[in-house]
């Protein structure tokens, strides 16, 4: 690997880290609602579900726990992990691109972009899994009076104490099922839309609109594909025990909760996906511009 290639990957790493923190701050309240909806118990016969939808869930969280304490519960873990997760995502995407390029300036086909995106998903799994294990356990807890975990660090300590290091990586298989194809679609959607929208404006008057729109829709495309496996992942990571055969869990969910359960909280997911990923890509592109100015590619 040449010096220029290493420098470009370092830029991806830095820009990905910066954009990750910004994305977490914007998206965490919506993510809290998503996990609450995904992990709420099945209502008994004649009982109403705990939450009728995303808006009802958000309202009840705020009433019961307060705005910041409720919607930003567990935010310390994703803020701390958002840096390495997004850094790993964009770094792995850079690796995926370079593996298919002869020169750094080579333009990838959309098939190659999709492959690079899948490599990004694969490279992110080992960083994402422990972070989401902690986040899901904290978010899934009902009111503050019944809290088992005081925060992200306390949750991590208790997982390590009771389950060992293996407990932090509970759900790795289903996280891989979610991340690899969805990440391919994520970057494919972004690159295709950005290129298409950029053609509408001249290079001299290039605005951030193509990046914002493409980033937002890329996030929506990602979650449209990823949500069914994310539902299973949330169950695997929050339920006790280790016997979580994915096929059996899938058939059990379909049998007892119906096929639509795989898109429970979909509205909250999409509402979160657009602004979060618009911010992520905008921050990434702006940071890359600064880095390219400071360390120009020759």
UniProtKB/TrEMBL annotation:
It is found in: Mitochondrion membrane. It is a multi-pass membrane protein. Keywords: Membrane, Mitochondrion, Repeat, Transmembrane, Transmembrane helix, Transport. GO terms for biological process: carnitine transmembrane transport; mitochondrial transport. GO terms for cellular component: mitochondrial membrane. GO terms for molecular function: O-acyl-L-carnitine transmembrane transporter activity. Pfam families: Mito_carr (PF00153). Solcar repeats lie at residues 7-99, 108-196, 206-290. Signal peptide: none annotated. Belongs to the mitochondrial carrier (TC 2.A.29) family. This is Mitochondrial carnitine/acylcarnitine carrier protein-like protein. It comes from Dinothrombium tinctorium. The lineage of its organism: Eukaryota, Metazoa, Ecdysozoa, Arthropoda, Chelicerata.
């Amino acid at each position: 690997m040449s010096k220029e290639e290493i420098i470009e990957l370092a830029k991806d790493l830095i820009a990905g880290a910066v954009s990750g923190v910004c994305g977490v701050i914007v998206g965490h309240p919506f993510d809290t609602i998503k996990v609450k909806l995904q992990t709420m118990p099945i209502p008994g016969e004649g009982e109403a579900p705990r939450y009728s939808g995303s808006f009802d869930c958000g309202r009840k969280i705020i009433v019961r726990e307060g705005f910041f304490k409720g919607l930003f519960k567990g935010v310390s873990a994703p803020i701390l992990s958002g840096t390495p997760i997004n850094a790993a995502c964009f770094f792995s995407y850079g690796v995926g691109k370079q593996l298919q390029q002869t020169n750094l300036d080579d333009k990838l086909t959309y098939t190659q972009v999709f492959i690079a995106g899948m490599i990004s998903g694969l490279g992110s799994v080992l960083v994402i899994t422990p972070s989401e294990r902690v986040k899901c356990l904290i978010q899934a807890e009902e009111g503050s009076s019944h809290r088992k975990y005081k925060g992200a660090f306390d949750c991590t300590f208790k997982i390590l104490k009771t389950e060992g290091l293996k407990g932090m990586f509970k759900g790795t298989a289903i996280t891989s099922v979610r991340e690899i194809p969805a990440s391919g679609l994520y970057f494919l959607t972004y690159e295709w839309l950005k290129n298409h929208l950029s053609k509408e404006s001249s290079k001299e008057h290039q605005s951030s609109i193509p990046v914002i729109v493409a980033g937002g829709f890329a996030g929506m495309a990602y979650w449209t594909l990823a949500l069914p496996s994310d539902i299973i992942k949330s169950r695997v990571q929050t339920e006790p025990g280790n016997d979580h055969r994915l096929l059996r869990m899938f058939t059990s969910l379909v049998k007892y909760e119906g096929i639509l359960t795989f898109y429970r909280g979909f509205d909250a997911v999409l509402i979160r996906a657009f602004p979060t990923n618009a911010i992520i890509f905008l921050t990434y592109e702006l940071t890359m511009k600064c880095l390219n100015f400071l360390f120009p590619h020759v």
